[in-house]
Amino acid sequence: MPAWARTLLLIGALLSAAPLAAQTSDLVSQSSLRVCADPANAPMSDKAGNGFENKLAEFVAAKLDLPLKYEWYPMATGFIRNTLRANKCDLVIGYAQGHEMVLNTNHYFTSAYTIVTRKADEIAAVDALSDERLKGLSIGIVAGSPPATHLARNGLIAKARPYNLVVDRRHESPIVDMLGDLNAGEIDAALLWGPIAGPLVKSDFPDLQVTPLLKETLPPRLFFRITMGVRQGEKVWQRKLNSLIRRNQDEINGILVEAGVPLLTDMGSEMLDLAQ
Fold this sequence. Notes:
The protein is α/β, with parallel strands linked by helices. It contains eight helices and twelve strands.
């Protein structure tokens, strides 16, 4: 193929791609911050605006000087397809780093699974699932969650009590049920994702305590970095949010700490020192 023909083909390809790039960029609303959220996913988000993700959404909207609007959909199968990908909203406030369904921003916090116990019990001092004091106890676990493998490895699965993983929180609240069972003495401990356990215990269960599991070195890992999620390809929007996160990390930390979210260093090996 002559050089001039290759050049024309390249120009044609660039011209045909240009409208698509513009269209992708134009999908992000310029008149409001459109957030995709679960209407019944406390303590993270709810329609009343009480969740810490609601507070973060309000914070981001204020920094962007835009009104906040929600697209509500249960955080279950089809959430991204029916919200972000359907162009009904432009931002998911909390999404695990590395998930291919969204384009992740830089992470804005790291947290881990925790063991929740009654403050008055001997096992309140336990901070690892290999602790012998857990032997023979009934431990609540969300079915299919990463700590289940660790329970099995340490011989604790036989008496574990499973709670449902994927539910419509408008009708079921298995995690609240688990904490209620622990508070009532029906189980001895609970293994829960820290950003759920911390706020719920802080607001509703004063006799319980939350201890991050920082000593589990074998897979699967129990700590995760949390980002904001945008549509694939929307790099300009992603960079804008990255800049916002970087400039306002202290305020973001403050919102999370006020809610009761346990914050860890990036590698999940120790609690974040907010005094630095």
